[in-house]
C-alpha cells in the first residue's frame, strides 16, 4: 500500500492570460485562467474544515469500485480474471482509513464487499477480505449502468468524508436500461461524487463511457487489452488517493451589463462547463471542477462586455475558487444558499477590458487563447470526423480529420497526432492533407475517439 499522507489542503493560485485590449466598440473578451494547486503538505491560504484530515493521514475519502459482471465479460474467459486482478490491485492501493466498497454490475447492482449497505474501512484485514470476496465475481446477465451508479451513490453518501469517488469498468453497451434513465441518474449523481470510467475491449460505446466521466468530472479511457487493466486501475486509485479537496468550484463574478458567453476547461482535457453554472449570489456563478490534488488545469473564459470608447477600461470578470466548508456538501446545496456555505480558497484572478485605437494591440491574439481555441477545435474535428466516417461520408470525414491532423501538428499534440495516423494516411500534416485508411482497427478508432479531448499546453 502506497503512503499518501498529507497534512493540509494544497495552496491554490490563479493566473490570467489575455489580450485585454479591444478596438473601439469591441465587445468580446477572452482569457485563459490557469488554476494550480500545489504543496498539499504545506499550509496554504485556505484552512481545511476540521474533519477533512485524520491525524497523520490524507483527507477522509470513500471509494466505490464498480465492476462489469455481465455475460460478455466471459468472452474471452481471461477478461473476468483480469477484472478481478485489477480490482484487487486497486484495493491494495487504498490508503489506510479510506472507506470503500466493491459493486458487481449486471442488469442489477450487487454489493460484493462488504455488503449490508455499508462501506468497509481499509486496513490489512479488510483488504484481504475484499480480495477474497472478489472470487465471487462471475459473468452473467445484462448491463444497466445506472443501477451501478445509484448503488455507488447510496454507499458513498453514507460516509461523512471529504472525498467521494467511483471507478467504473464496463465491456459492453448499456443495453438493459433506457438512455434517458442513465442520463437522469447522471444528473442526480453529479456533484455528489466523481467517477473515472473505463471501457475494456472494443464492444462498448465510447459516447456512453465518456458521458459518465464528463457528468461526474472524472476521466475516461479505453483499455483495449484486458491484461493492462491492473496497471490502469492502480494508477487511477493512486490518483484518487492523491486528491485533497473536493467540490472545488470556479466562481466567476461579472459586473452589470456583461454576459458570460462560455466557460470551459481546456487542459488537461476539453470539458464544457457553461451549462453547469450554479448561481452564487448577485452577478456570480459557480462552475464545478471536482476534486483536486497537486495539479494544474486551464480554463477558457469568454465574456461579452458593453461597447465603449477609446481610453475606457473596465473589470470584465473576477475569478476565484470556492469549496463547501462541509466536506461532501454538494455544489447544488451550496448554490441554493446563495454561496453562503462555501469557503473561499483565497486565490483570485482579474479579467480586464481596455479600449484602444492601437490596431496592433487590439488585433493581437494572446498565445494561450489562440492555442486552446485550436485544441478545442481539434477535439471537435476528431469527433465530427469519426461520426462522418461511421455514417459513410468519406469526403466530410477526410476534411474534418485532415483539419485535426493540421491542428495536432501545429500545436505539438504528438499523442493525438499518433492516434490520428492510425486512422488516416497523412500526406502533408502542415496543410491537413490526408487519406482515410481503407482498414482501421476498431481499437485504434475507439482510442482516438475516447482520447479526442486530451490537450497539450502551449509550447514554450
Structural class: alpha+beta
Number of contiguous helices: 12
Query: Which regions have little confidence, pLDDT < 50, spanning 5+ residues?
Result: 1-7, 41-56, 326-339
Main sheet makeup: 7 strands, mixed
**Strand coverage percent:** 25-35%
CA(first)-CA(last) distance: 37 Å
Proportion of helical residues: 25-40%
Cα Rg: 23 Å
What value does the average pLDDT take?
A: 91
Strands, count: 20
Q: In one word, what is the shape? A: globular
Characterization of this structure:
This protein is an alpha+beta fold and 460 residues long. It has 12 helices and 20 strands. It has helices at residues 78-93, 124-133, 145-157, 179-189, 206-215, 229-241, 331-336, 359-363, 367-390, 394-411, 414-420, 442-450; strands at 11-18, 21-22, 28-38, 61-68, 99-105, 109-113, 120-121, 163-170, 194-200, 220-223, 245-253, 259-267, 271-272, 278-279, 284-292, 295-304, 313-324, 342-355, 424-428, 433-436. The strands form 4 sheets. Strands 4, 5, 6, 7, 8, 9 and 10 form a 7-stranded mixed β-sheet that branches. The protein has a 6-stranded mixed β-sheet with strand order 2-18-17-11-15-14. Strand 12 (259-267) and strand 13 (271-272) form a beta hairpin. The longest helix is centred in the C-terminal third of the chain and has 24 residues, at 367-390. The chain is globular.
Keywords, separated by commas or semicolons:
30% strand; 460 residues; alpha+beta; 31% helix; seven-stranded mixed beta sheet; six-stranded mixed beta sheet; disordered N terminus; globular; 20 strands
Amino acid at each position: 500500500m502506497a503512503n499518501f499522507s498529507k497534512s493540509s489542503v494544497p495552496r491554490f493560485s490563479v493566473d490570467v492570460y489575455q489580450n485585454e485590449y479591444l478596438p473601439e466598440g469591441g465587445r468580446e473578451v477572452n482569457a485563459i485562467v490557469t488554476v494550480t494547486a500545489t504543496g498539499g503538505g504545506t499550509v496554504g491560504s485556505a484552512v481545511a474544515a476540521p474533519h477533512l484530515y485524520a491525524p497523520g493521514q490524507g483527507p477522509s475519502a470513500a471509494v466505490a469500485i464498480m465492476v462489469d459482471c455481465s455475460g460478455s465479460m466471459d468472452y474471452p474467459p481471461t477478461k473476468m480474471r483480469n477484472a478481478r486482478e485489477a480490482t484487487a490491485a486497486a484495493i491494495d492501493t487504498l490508503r489506510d482509513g479510506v472507506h470503500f466498497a466493491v459493486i458487481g454490475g449486471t442488469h442489477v447492482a450487487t454489493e460484493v464487499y462488504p455488503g449490508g449497505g455499508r462501506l468497509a474501512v481499509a486496513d490489512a484485514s479488510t483488504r484481504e477480505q475484499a480480495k477474497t470476496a472478489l472470487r465471487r465475481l462471475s459473468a452473467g446477465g445484462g448491463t444497466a449502468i445506472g443501477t451501478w451508479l445509484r448503488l455507488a451513490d447510496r454507499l458513498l453518501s453514507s460516509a461523512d468524508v471529504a472525498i467521494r469517488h467511483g471507478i467504473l469498468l464496463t465491456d459492453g453497451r448499456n443495453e438493459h436500461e433506457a438512455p434517458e434513465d442513465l442520463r437522469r441518474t447522471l444528473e442526480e449523481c453529479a456533484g455528489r461524487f466523481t467517477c473515472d470510467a473505463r471501457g475494456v475491449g472494443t464492444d462498448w460505446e465510447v459516447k456512453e463511457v465518456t458521458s459518465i466521466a464528463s457528468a461526474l468530472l472524472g476521466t475516461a479511457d479505453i483499455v483495449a487489452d484486458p491484461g493492462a487493466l491492473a496497471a490502469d486501475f492502480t494508477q487511477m486509485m493512486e490518483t484518487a488517493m492523491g486528491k485533497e479537496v473536493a467540490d472545488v468550484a470556479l466562481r466567476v463574478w461579472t459586473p452589470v451589463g456583461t454576459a458570460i458567453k462560455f466557460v470551459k476547461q481546456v487542459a488537461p482535457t476539453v470539458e464544457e462547463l457553461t451549462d453547469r453554472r450554479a448561481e452564487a449570489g448577485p452577478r456570480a456563478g459557480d462552475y464545478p471542477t471536482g476534486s483536486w490534488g497537486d495539479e494544474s488545469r486551464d480554463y477558457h473564459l469568454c465574456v461579452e462586455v458593453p461597447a465603449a470608447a477609446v481610453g475606457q477600461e473596465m473589470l470584465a470578470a473576477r475569478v476565484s475558487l470556492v469549496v463547501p466548508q462541509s466536506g461532501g456538501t454538494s455544489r447544488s446545496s451550496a448554490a441554493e444558499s446563495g454561496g453562503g456555505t462555501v469557503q473561499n480558497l483565497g486565490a483570485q484572478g482579474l479579467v480586464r477590458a481596455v479600449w484602444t485605437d492601437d490596431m496592433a494591440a487590439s488585433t493581437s491574439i494572446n498565445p494561450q487563447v489562440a492555442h486552446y481555441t485550436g485544441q478545442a477545435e481539434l477535439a471537435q474535428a476528431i469527433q465530427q470526423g469519426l461520426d462522418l466516417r461511421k455514417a459513410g461520408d468519406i469526403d466530410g470525414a477526410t476534411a474534418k480529420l485532415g483539419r485535426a491532423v493540421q491542428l495536432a501538428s501545429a500545436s505539438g499534440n504528438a499523442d493525438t497526432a499518433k492516434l490520428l495516423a492510425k486512422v488516416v494516411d497523412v500526406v502533408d500534416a502542415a496543410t491537413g492533407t490526408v487519406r482515410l485508411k481503407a482498414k482501421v482497427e476498431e481499437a485504434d478508432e475507439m482510442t482516438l475517439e475516447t482520447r479526442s479531448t486530451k490537450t497539450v499546453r502551449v509550447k514554450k
